[in-house]
Amino acid sequence: MLQFIPSYGTKFMTKKLWSILSPKYDWNKHLDDLNINAETYSYGCFEECLQYVRQHSEAELYPKGIGLILYQMGKGNIQDDFIVKRVEKNLYKFKNEFTPRLAFGAYQGYIALSLKNLYLQEFFEREFYNHSVLDLNEAMDMIEAVGKNTSLERKYLDKLLAKVVKPVLMDQYPKLIKYTPKLSLKIIQLCIKAKYFEPDFFDVVVDNLLNTRRVANLQFYLEIIQTLRQLDESGEFPRLLKEKIDNLVQRLKGMPKFTWKYNFDEMRFKTMKELKAVRENMKVQEVGKYLYYPKDALVGYEERRGLEEKLLEEEEKQMQKEKDIEDMIYDEFMIQKLEERENEAFKKKKGIQDEEQSDDELIQAAGKSKLPKMSQLLEDPTYLQNLSIEGGSDESEEENSDDERFSKAAQLKNTKQKKVFKKRKGRKDIDKQNLDDDE
C-alpha cells in the first residue's frame, strides 16, 4: 500500500521515493502540483493512485489529490464515475483553498472529461476565476481540453477561450510563437480540434507558417500542407486557404533540394525508378545520411582523390629522405667527435710518458750540477713525504680520470655505431631505455 506524505504544503509523493530528491534536480518539475514524471514518481504511478483511491473509499482527498487526479484523467481520457463521486464528496471542505495551479488542473480536467455535473462546474469555475492567470503551456492545455469537450455549450467554450486564452496567445506571439515554427504548427492543430479560429491570431499564425523560409525539413512542410488542406476540405473553416497552400507548393517546387525526391503535383515521394531517371542531371543528391554523385562527377572526384593521395605519398617519401640524411650527418658528427676524444686521450697519455723522460734527463743534469745528489734526496724523509703527497695523488687521479674517459668514449662509440648499423638495415626500433642508461 502506498503511503503519501506532504512536502512543501500541497506536494505529495511516495515515501519510498523521497530519497531521490536532491538540489541537482529541476525543482520546477518537482514542485509542480499537477506533474507526474519519472523523476518524482515511478512509472505508472498515476494508475496506482487511482487504484489506491478506489480501494480506500474512506480516505479523504485534499486539493492536491483532487487537482492532480482530474488533470491527469483529462490528459489520459480516463473516465471513472466512482472517482468523480469521491471528488464531489470531499469538495465542500476546501472552498477557496485551491492554489492557482491546482484550480487550473481541476477545471481543465473537468472540461476535458466532458462531465455533466453543475455543482462541480460551478465550484471549479469559481476557484479558477479567483486566479485565472495562465502561461502559454496552460493556455495550450485549455485549448486541448476544449477540443475534447462534448457536453458544454459552444458559447460557453468560446467565451472561456476569448476571456482566458486569447490574451495569453496574443501576448506570446511576437515574443515566442512567431519565431518557433514547430510550436506554431502545434497550436494550429490544437485550435483546429477545438474549432477556435480567431482571425486576429489564427490567420496571423497560418500566414507566418506558410511564408517561413527557415525550415530545411521537407517533412515539416508536408505536415503543414496536409493539416491546412484537411481543414480547407472539411468546410469548418470560414475562410479559404487553397490559394495560400498553392503558393507554398509552388515555392517548394523551385527548391532543388526537395524536388529531386518529391513529386509535388501528386504529393508523394518519388519511386526508385524515377530517382534513377533524374540522377544524372543532379549535381549532388541526398540519400539518407549519404550523398549520391552522378557518374561524371564521381569520375572527376576519384581522379582528384587519386592525385591528392599521390602528392601525399611523395611528400612522405621526401620527408623520410630528409630525415635519413639528417640521421647520417648526425652519426658521422658523433663518430668524428669520438675519434677526436680518443686522439686527445692518446696525446695526453703520450705527454705523460714524455714528461717522465724529461724528469730523468733533469736528474742526470742535476747530477752534473751543484744540486744535491739523488741518493742524498732519497735519504731525506721530508722530501719523500712531500713527493708522495704532491705527485703521487695527482698522477693516480689523472690516471683514474683518463681510464674513465676512455671507457665512456668506447661505450658511446659502440652504441652510436650500433644505431647507425640498425638504421641502415631498416631497424628503427631502438631500445631508448638502454641508451639513456648508457648516457
Question: How would you characterize the overall build of this protein?
Answer:
There is one protein chain. The protein has 439 residues and is mainly alpha-helical. It has 18 helices and six strands. The strands form three sheets. A two-stranded antiparallel ribbon has the order 1-2. A hairpin with a 3-residue loop joins strand 1 and strand 2. The longest helix is centred in the last third of the chain and has 74 residues. The two termini are 78 Å apart.
Shape: elongated
The major beta sheet can be summarized as: 2 strands, antiparallel
* Helical content (DSSP H or I, runs of 4+): 55-70%
Q: Helices and strands: which structural class?
A: mainly alpha
Overall average pLDDT: 76
What is the topological layout?
Elements: E1 4-7, E2 11-14, H1 27-30, H2 45-55, H3 63-76, H4 81-90, H5 100-112, H6 118-129, H7 136-148, H8 154-172, H9 181-194, H10 199-210, H11 218-234, H12 242-253, H13 256-259, E3 262-263, E4 268-269, H14 272-278, E5 285-287, E6 290-292, H15 295-368, H16 374-379, H17 381-424, H18 432-438
Antiparallel strand pairs: 1-2, 3-4, 5-6
